[in-house]
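Journal club side-thread
Mid-discussion, someone asked how the predicted structure for our own chain would compare to the paper's figures. Pasting it here so we can look after the session.
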Amino acid sequence: RKAHNQLGEIWSEPLSDRRQAISCFQNVLAIAPEDRGAMQRLYDLFVWCRDWENAADTLLRMIDTEAEPRQQIALFVELAGIYEQGFGDPQMAAEQLGLALEIDPLDDGVIGQLTDLHARLGHWDAVCETLRGFLDALPTERRRAGRTRRIQLGEVLHQRMNRSTEALEVYREAVDLDAGDSDARLAMARLLAQDGQIDHAVREHRTILELDPLNVDNLRQLRALWSRAGAYDLAYRAASVLVGFGAAGELDQRIYREHRNKQGTQVPKAPLDAASYEAHVARLEDPVAGWAVLSVLGESAHRIRPPAFDLWQVGKADRLPPRSDDPLKVM
């Protein structure tokens, strides 16, 4: 056994005769069928030779002799790669990933690979089934940990399968599990707006404002909704924040300029650049700090939600002038 192993290494590396090396390692397995080192070397050699059939057979043999569940999962994932990239059979690859999930239904890495594979194949029903299986398997104490997959499920139902009612239920479930989940609320607000439920959508956006006052995506959607509803003063207030953060689109800037020209006020001299926004604003985790930023950003931006100074123990004397033209002073 030892001699065959040594010969296999010699044939494999110095002599580069991989067929002879394969023969040696096969001899090792004839003597010791559970020699995992020999199996691994055989597998590597078959992959190098692009002998996918024997590579797959060797992986199956390794799976049968592996007692550690995590290692079994890793081998099934490897086998899925052989079927997809070697044989060009993504359906068989999906079956191997499914077998890995039978060992651990909560393996998020395998869930991600399997949903990506089904998505590339256009099997959206299978994507939903995989995600629902993961969410259903979560124990009660870990259900909030599935927020990313829950939102993903909602997006697939809405965007790929045109099942908006089901998607809305998924988002509501996410919010029920965590009322502070601004991503789920944002997705739900977007869906409500598309469904024509503008008042309900605005209500969700206002809730997000309380949770995350400086959420740019939320402000963009709010500006669009207020414009759509004819609430132009409110739309201007949202646009002014976006302009101050250097995150305004063309329409945001036009609304901002037109409103200021109408009011006869000047445009701020120093809107934040992207680097300043990312460094000083985007990472604020405290909503109170976010509202503090809004309250000094401009003459109307903070009126999206009137400031309550007692929340952060300052008085009006601590504010910058109401028409401050340099948002960088906010920092």
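Post-session note: The first helix runs from residue 2 to 12.
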